[in-house]
Amino acid sequence: MNKQQAREILSVYRPGTEDEHDPMFAEALALARTDRELKTWLEESTNLDRGMRAALARVDAPIDLREIILAGRKIIRPTPWWNRRLSGQQLAAAAAVILVAALSALWFNYQPPGFADFRREIADSSWGPSPHVEMPAASLGEVKRLLAAQHVATNFSVPPALASSDIHGCSVMHWRGHEVPVICFHADKQHLHLVVVDRSLFPDAPVVMPQTDQWSSWRTASWTQDDYAYVLTGLKTMSFVKKFRKSRRWDWGG
Amino acid sequence: MTSCYEPLYRFALGLSRSEADAADLTQRAFERFGEKSGALRDPSKVKTWLFTTLYRDFLQQRRHATRFPQSEIDESIESTVVELPKADVMADANAAVAALRRLEEPFRSALILFYLQEHSYRDIAEILDVPIGTVMSRISRGKEMLREQLVSNDSKVAAVSAGRGAV
Fold first, then answer.
1. Are B23 and A48 a contacting pair at CB < 8 A?
2. A42 and A10 in contact (C-beta within 8 Å)?
3. Which of A53, B79, B99, B140 could make an S-S bridge to A11, C-beta 3.0–4.6 Å?
4. Which of A38-47, A83-92, A183-192 has the lowest mean pLDDT?
């Protein structure tokens, strides 16, 4: 083994770990004990590593993150049916339920899409077309004028944190026969879409308080106000919403 | 969770561009763990699974971000350019993270996992989905780049100090 080979091996050596007993490092370490130049290089290298490790170890996670994660984990998960032991009566009841369900499925062939379906489909497709802003605009007023020209209702309201953000423009999307305006924002260094939809289409839309969801990489926050349901979507929707909720610049309406 | 979430957040912070992104990545990794934990047979693999999930999520987000570029510059990173301490006294955690963040991605993730010392090289290879040899070479090359960056930065600090001294 020459010095260069020893350096390459020792550059991934972590003193104080299982690496000390790894035969891969043994020969290179032996060489470093006898070669002054290599020894100095190894000391510098491990000094840098020690400093970086110590610095990384000092990075603290946000205080509330643990609580948020734990709160998110509080989900009641029923035991899957295939893990349960069923009695004969239960099996008969289950068979009856399946039969009724199958008949119901045949009878009610069509189930109207719920708000969750809308939210996911629209979050995904709003980012699809490129360019996705059909009508560039610099203000909310301009957006409403452009939407009105397309015969789309414009008496919706936008939370103050969004209304004061940079607006790129808007598009009108078509979702299962309904025209849905989508407003494109650049807010708090993030690219966000606000989708507005007639509330009467979705009796199951969240009432006032925001409901969050994730679809692929897109995150959504949804709420309702007056006659409309709103879906805010982007890669970092929640961090944006959280920030403005803390600063009280986010009005969920109601 | 207690033993995992701090290192997981540190990994996320090194990969992503902001604390909010890192918190989101960490939270999502645990959310997915909540959804999939029943399928994990080996409890000793939980930590590696969380890191792997977080890393894949980060890569997926990065692909989306490339598709829809955002003019997002993390001022906290820029502001630390001339504040990095000398390589042998890397005392400032923010500066360390900033230095790691400036590395190109294939080297960055390998080097952060190396410094976190939470995983064996075999686990790191599994998280990054590359052979162990590739992990080794990425760490080695990453450290060279990091050292070059720190040396160059020390020179800048020295130049700034000399400039101030002359005035």
1. no
2. yes
3. B140
4. A83-92
Backbone CA torsion sign across A65, A66, A71, A75: positive
User: What six digits make up the tokens of A115?
Assistant: 């708000």
Is B31 in contact with A219 (Cβ distance < 8 A)? Answer: no
ipTM of this complex: 0.74
Domain's final residue, options B72, B90, B122: B72
Pick the CATH number of A115-246 from 1.10.10, 3.40.1000, 2.60.120, 2.40.10: 3.40.1000
The residues, ordered by sequence, that sit 6+ positions from B17 with a Cβ below 8 Å of its Cβ are B72, B74, B77, B101
Instruction: Pick the residue from chain B with its C-alpha nearest to A17.
Output: B117
Q: What is the mean pLDDT of residues A105-126?
A: 75
Asked if A68's CB is within 8 angstroms of B27's CB, the reply is yes
For the stretch A88-112, what's the b/e string if a residue is b when 16 or more beta carbons lie within 10 angstroms of its beta carbon?
eeeeeeeeeeeeeeeeeeeeeeeee
Q: Are A148 and A97 in contact (CB under 8 A)?
A: no
- CATH number reported for the structural domain that contains residue B43 in this entry: 1.10.1740
Say which of A11, A59, A236 has its CB closest to residue B143: A11
| Cβ-Cβ contacts under 8 Å for A84 (sequence gap 6 or more) | none
Note the pLDDT of residue B75: 34
Task: Supply the pTM of this predicted model.
Answer: 0.50
Helix (H) or strand (E) holding B58: helix B46-67
Tokens of B25: 């990545």
Domain that holds residue B108: 79-167
Which tops the pLDDT comparison, B20 or A30? Answer: A30
Task: Kindly state the tokens that stand for B44.
Answer: 């000793």
Chain B residue closest in CA terms to A56? B93
Could you give the CA distance from residue B77 to residue B79 in angstroms, rounded to a whole number? 5
